[in-house]
Amino acid sequence: MMELAWGEDFDALVDVSKSAFVRYSPLEERTNSVPFADQIAQFAELGWLQLSDPNVAADEGVPLTTIAAVFVEMGRALADTPLLDLIVARDAALAAGSEHAAALAERIGDGEAIVLPVFPDAAIAGSEWGGGLTIENGVLNGTAFAIGYADQAEAFLVHAVGAENVLAVVEAGAAVTVEPMSNMGDHEVFALSFANVAVPAESVLARGADADRAAKLASQRGSVLRAAQVYGAGLRLLDITVLYAQQRHQFGGPIGRFQAVQYLCTDIAVAAHLTSAHVRSAAGALDAGADAQPHLGLLHKQAIKTATHMVHCAHEVHAGIGYMVESNVHLFTNAAKRWQFDFGSAAHTDAEIVSALDRIYVGA
Amino acid sequence: MRTDLGTENEAWRAEIRAFLDAELPADHAFNPEFDDAPEQWAIAVEFSKKVAAKGWIGLTWPKEYGGKGLTPVANQIFLEEMYAADAPIINSVGIFLAAGTILVGGSEEQKQRLLPEIASMNTLWAEGLTEPEAGSDLGSLKTKAVQDGDDWIITGQKAFTSWGPMSDVLYVAARTGAEDGRNDAISIFLVDLKSEGVTLHPMRNYGGGVQSTTYLDHVRVSSSSLIGEAGMGWKYIMRAFYASGTVEPIYAMQESRLRELVAYCKQIPGKLEDPRVQADLAELAGIVQSQRLMAYEIIGDNAAGRQTPWGGGVQQIAAKEYEPLFAQIFDRVLGPTSQLRSDSKLAPMGGKPEAWYRQSFANHAGGTSQLKRMVLATRGLGLSR
After folding, report:
1. Cα–chain-centroid distance for residue B247?
2. Out of A145-149, B18-22, B118-122, which region has the weakest mean confidence (pLDDT)?
């Protein structure tokens, strides 16, 4: 068994994804954005909302190492879509295991239900922002931050903590406020606040450890696909940066002949490729049902590093022109900045890795 | 963070570990940076002979040449375990560079004669590639070999000859073509280090060991000392590095050190909970795992017959840059005591970090990091020269 490989149909899915995301690409036609409902219909038609299933072993279903192809291409096109959010919500519903949850997952998979995950980030929940959702005696309270596409959702799949943690479906109208959080990511995210919202028993998909496990597994799988997106964006950013280094002449030749410029380009290449390797490693561990946490921690660290560093290098090569909006570099800057925090805080990631090292090396 | 490689491979790993438990001396500390301390060298030779007796040298070579005909994965596992245990593997020049060259370019007679000698550790090789003005740019080498009847006369100077005084023969790259010819004008010779005209001068290094400057003053060798064909040396060297299909598993050695560091930190109250320490340990873990993943990507590509333009370039850069970075971060976790030498009672982890830091600067063999980045930029990304 080899550690690193993409899934069997990865290349075929890349081809399909490439043609699909051409329609979404802000690099080629920024004004040609596909309406939200149409995007979901197209994803459903392509079968992409049903690709993922955490309950099916990789040799029976579509492994993450294959599904990642869609997200590599989504990153390469820099397409802004709710695909990942819907897949995470569906994965969580499937992992919850109840009949009710399975029915919801089927509706999400068919593109009939727009249910978005609201899993408050533990790293942020404990911060001065004070975010987090609690549930006591079937009553939901609190605020969740940075929820994408919340203004388009029909319902939210909420992971709330309390005497008994729950994974529950909450109708979108139940949120007291859906407040835009303006940010540099050029991506609309919202703060969702709930005040004394009754969550009936039939809305609860899982309770206690089952709820936590379902939310965690879906989040883990989602983070692998997000990292695949970072990798894809890195490849595209590398392409446009190398092209610029070949075309831009200074001191009698292309700037790409200067070693300093070459090193900046190779930095993007190295960071992107290492992210790819970690994606395959973590996806492989999840597909195999192995303990994926150590692999995920290291993947998150690399993806954060890549998201941070690749745009720095691209700006260094592009210099002044990269700072102008007529160049595409800022689009990657914004997206990468947003993704950088999709893996939790760096401190949280570091602590998780050290916890794994302690457990594996010392046997804590 | 290692992933299970399957029942057969893991059984092989267990067999190697059992051998190491039984045969590796407790006091096996061996400075990998060309240690010439007689007592350590004696331990290294004795242990290496035991490895050879198991038939574990040249695991991927064909059986008819003294090898085992195993897969690159099996070889990688063997190397990982040796590195993880800090086992003293001597004759790396012979096992990898020379044997690789002989396998890809040597005559049948040379394969039959030379490879079993390497596999049995009967013949130890020293490296004669680098020159004072030709290191990473090997095409600039000046050492000449001129044909004289059935013999060749070699004259020149080699730098950083590893294991010179302890070796039997020298792997020599010499110019046999025109001065301005580069890739097609280099040939590979085997030179007996006891030959008339060979002189070694010690060059002590920062890592604590010794390399040599080797002077070749009209050294006469027979035509059978030319490995393969004249003028093919450049291609042989390039292919020799990949002949085993494996990657030097520095990450396995680093992981052992990281394991030891985590255990050390755990003994200090609050250390593992310090966010700055956590950030550094996580960085070290990332360095280890990234290199492991690159190694297995290359092995997988080799096994599938694919080229590795990405993985190969990234692996080489990572290996070059991560080794000193690992040592720096390692020392940052330990703080000032990391500078204490092994004879200090206060030295953490027996003073090994101090030596590791010094030795981490020896990461230039096979070309510097800058060279590897230029190769990736020009050949991989298509940027101008």
Report:
1. 9
2. A145-149
User: CA-to-CA distance for B271 and B118, rounded, in angstroms?
Assistant: 47
Phi, psi for residue A206 in degrees, rounded to 5? -155, 155
The complex's ipTM works out to 0.89
Task: Tell me how far apart the alpha carbons of residues B211 and B217 are, in angstroms, rounded to a whole number.
Answer: 19
Q: Over the stretch B296-331, which tens digit does the pLDDT of each residue have?
A: 999 988 888 887 767 788 999 999 999 999 999 999
d(CA A83, CA A64): 15
- Planar angle of CA A337, A346, A263, nearest 5 degrees: 60
pLDDT tens digits for A68-94? 999 999 999 999 899 999 999 999 999
Cβ-defined contact of B385 to A263 (cutoff 8 Å): no
The partner residue sitting opposite A347, judged by closest CB among B73, B275, B292, is B275
Nearest CA to A226 out of A279, A183, A190 is that of A279
Cβ B12 vs Cβ B57: under 8 Å:
no
Residues 3-42 of chain B with CB under 8 A from chain A are 3-6, 9
Q: How many interface pairs between A and B have CB atoms less than 8 angstroms apart?
A: 153
Asked whether the predicted pLDDT for residue B13 surpasses 90, the reply is: yes
CA-CA distances (angstroms) from residue B242 to B37, B239, B312? 31, 5, 10
Residue B30 has pLDDT above 80, yes or no: no
Question: Mutation test of the interface with chain A: which of B254, B379, B381, B385, choosing the one with the most A Cβ atoms within 10 A?
Answer: B381
- What is the SS3 assignment for A188? coil
Q: Residue A31's pLDDT is what?
A: 60
Residue spans of alpha helices (H) in chain B? 7-23, 38-53, 72-84, 92, 99-105, 108-119, 233-240, 250-266, 275-304, 309-334, 352-359, 369-375
User: Given this model, what pLDDT does residue A1 score?
Assistant: 46
- CA–CA separation, B17 and A221 (whole Å): 35
